[in-house]
Queue: 2 jobs
Job 1
Amino acid sequence: MAKIALLLFFTVGVYLELSASTSIECSYKTHDWSIVKNAYFCTINNNPSITTRESATITSISGPHESGKTNSDVGGFYVYSKTINYFPRGLETFFKNIKIIDISHCNLMEVHQEDLKLFPKLVEIYLHYNPLEVLEEGLFDFNPDLEFIYIWNNKIVHIEPNVFDHLSKLRYLYLQEKNCIDAIAENSISEVKNVIQAVKSQCNKNTMTTSTTQPPTTSTQSPTTTSTTPKSINFESCLELESKIDNIASSLKDLIGQTPNAAFSNNNNQCDAFTDALRNQSEAIGRIDSRTEAFTEAMDTKLEILKENVENTRTLSLRQMQNFRDEVKTDHAGLLAAIRLRTDKIEKQIKEIKEQNQKIEDKLAKIMKSLKIDN
């Protein structure tokens, strides 16, 4: 019975692995990137947790578009600080006009020609702060329009010498890697050629084992290990594994067919216990996912509050400045009114003095006239 339980557990695990799929939620907005301007971007909001090759398949994309925009307008795909161990597959079925791909701080472990060949219009690619170890041969063979490649702070130990040779439009090439090369070419085809020559002399270490049916992986580091030895994926091994799975499934059917019903009745409690254990494990995973989502929502809420506080502070500062200006205007107007009032009083006094002087002059004139008459 223990053997049956083990086989059942393995079969269930394989089924769950093979049936995995991923949905992503996009926030759409137009941005200017390094080369491409006015690009309409899908920025991933949720954390799809792509930790296996199977879960890398995108089956649905949600999120409201800007007015008048559709999936066909999307020219940029941006992911930052999410769990993306493997390059998302199936994006081209939703976004057929991708020109910019930016996957940064996502623990991306590998990228292959098969991943990028689906984006023939690609102009810019950013893969920085990931544990990439290898840039395989022919990686960019189907991306002739590439002008900007930014591969920074990964764990690159091997770059195929001819991986950039055919990119005639390439003007920006950033390869800053501690283990292999530290070189930059900015808006200069001649500088790009110098960097490519440095790649051929410094990064062609031939440290990986290749297979005739599968190109070397860009990295084999898992999220929880620190291995620095690149490995290849053997297609024959995959076929062998698939064959073993089929054999296990067949053996499981044979065991079930050969086991008397009484045996299942006698061991019913064991089966129930095993089923309960699987259910409990699934529920525990669900609780972890719920807590993760709750934490993410809480952080999003705090971020929104912070943004609102910043905006409120800015609005308050503007309002206070306007009030100050109004007060200055009010005080200035009051001062002008006081000056005008004082000026009016002074002018009135001057007028009165002039009138008095005129009266005095008139009296003096009369006196002088009377004196002349007397004489």
Note: Confidence is low (pLDDT under 50) at residues 1-19, 207-239, 259-265.
Job 2
Amino acid sequence: MDISRLSQGAKLVVAATIAFLVVSIFNWQEVDFQGIASAGVSMWHGWGVLAGLIAIAILAWEGLRLAGIKIQIGLSPTMATMALAILLGLFTVLKFLVDNEFRTFWAWLGLLLAIAVVAGAFLNMQSAGESISELKTSVVAAAGSAATAAKEAVESATDKQADTPADTPADPPADPPADAAGEPPAARHDQGDDEPGRSV
């Protein structure tokens, strides 16, 4: 990968994102129990988890660009970087404001680095001759295309289900064969034979 192929803005995005991830593992909030012990949490809690995942996505996206792999998502590469950077900045600010107690130096540094990522993405987009208004238009168009594709997929699945013939009900079991003709009545015994002989 030739990093020199990246614009100055893209280089700032990559460097600031890497630094952001490094800072994220330190305690952004910490409590000191009178010098005896201390406890704290890193950025990877609450909104910070989303910020961290987006930072990883930014590095992966820039890595794909350096590798020359093109992915069609309805946005130009620089616009996609800008969109991810905006999300990173948003979730970092939310993390910073929601967890506003016992902040440490690392929380402030993480916030500044997130802002640096957004600034680098903006410079990167400007170097490509693109603007925020174009980003908004492209995002709306991409969202509309995705919604249309999802709707068509649902309709196609519904049509296929409607075209599939219903299962033919199984034939009812055949009636049992009629009983054979009744057996002939048992021959009657001759009463005369059965009766004992009478005396005269």
Note: The chain is about 60% helix and 5% strand.
